[in-house]
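Morning run. Coffee first, then this:
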Amino acid sequence: TGRKRKTGKSGSLSDLLEAGAAVNAPADVFGQSPAHLAACGGEAFFLLWQLQTGANLNQQDCLGEAPIHKAARVGSLECLALLVAGDAKIDLCNNSGQTAADLALAYGFLECARFLRTTQHTQTMKLRGQSGYSPRDDHGLLRGDPAAQKQEGETTRSICRKRRRSGDLVS
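And here it is:
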């Protein structure tokens, strides 16, 4: 047909929407659904729309990656937050054994990796609290361990110093 085809990630999403692609149907030869493409493009609006229409948050493509892996790979904290809020599996591993947090860290998106690891830790603690598991975390430390609290406090102080410094620049 004479219609000119759009290029780029947003164009691909627009083409899918115009064609009425099924929400969980693989949209390309790699088995990526429209939700994968939205997450990979950092397109939070399109991803939200996909989630509202029933997209499978944990559908894996040919690399074993779900939309959460794609969002982590491109450093889209906005997409990651949407996926986590929708109960995407944070600990899901791709074919290489990597979680979304592993990918975020590998690509240098430290804030995304920290968000995913903190969320996963919180979910683990909630599950253990509900199931009557031991109060030890994955590192064998007691929840009230002073060393863990000190490290957490130092991290918080470091973040506060960074915010203060960046706030000084604005003033």
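The radius of gyration is 19 Å. Good start to the day.
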